[in-house]
Amino acid sequence: MMFPGKRKAVLAAAGLILTAVLSGCSIGGPTGQQRADELATQLERSELGVSSAEATYLTSFSGDLTVSVVLEPDVVQPGYTVSAETLGPILGMIARSAKQMNVGGVGFYAEDEGGIHVSMVQAADELGIAEAVDGSSLSLTGERLEILAKQ
Q: Of 13, 26, 65, 143, whose CB is crowded by the most CB atoms within 10 A?
């Protein structure tokens, strides 16, 4: 039998742990947003054709991630498209990071330096993830992330 005072302490500790987990915070480690910021920095330094990046960790039960990149002019093809050779390594880096962060899914957006959406339809088809195309973005589920993490 647990004493009433001890029960309150146990419940309070459990509540703190649950709050930390749901807010994307691992005890003693970086938060989900800090890891997302590190991913954005890695993308910008990667020499994969990304001039700037922003990653946002969405605090939810599944812990989703949104990544937006601005592509350098030399990787944007005519018609505002991107090749699979360019997109694959970018998505691979994102997928490996997402796997380490244990996120449930990633929303990915790309545009050129003028703010024009870059089409990923053909590249996604070539990468075997055509079903991930969701309008102007890619919706990367856990299964798709596993495929991309190997690239």
A: 65
